[in-house]
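Per reviewer request, we include the raw input and output of the structure prediction for the construct analysed in the revised manuscript.
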Amino acid sequence: MSGKRELLLQLLARGAPDDEGAIVVTSRNPGADVAEEFSSMIDDQDTFFRVIDCLGSESEFDFVHSVSSPGDLTGIGIEFSELAREANEREVDRIRIGFDSLSPLLMYVDLQRLFRFLHVFTSQIQSRDWLGLFAIDPDAHDEQVVNTISQLFDGMIEVRVADEGGREARIRGITSSPTEWVPLD
């Protein structure tokens, strides 16, 4: 409800004018739906765009790659490696990767396994100097889970529904205090 997925897609789409590609790993919405929403944000610019659909949804689009479930971390990793290789072959220098939610993965795998997977996943992103954006529903997990996962990232953007409506966000570095809440809309 707070618009985390929309913000994530907007941040991915901001790379399109600079010929940056995008890969979305979706664990909540069918890949075709995510692709349609992303496409509307880039105004039909020609950009490298791929989706890894963790819902096992079938799609007629060749840019949507499916894995069996959000718990198929091996499948997600294999698909990501294939898409990174494809981007390299197409000479796409920079990719923005968005993981629309880690919360469903935690319903399938334990925290330690997810942490190990994300450590490898984020290391691949960092070694290529790409940008990774990962969403999680902090209300669905205890603080220890969120704090453990957040160790893998340089910072966090918290998003919430404002008291007067609309959305607000604040940035928090892992070692710094949060900024003030600012309107997103």
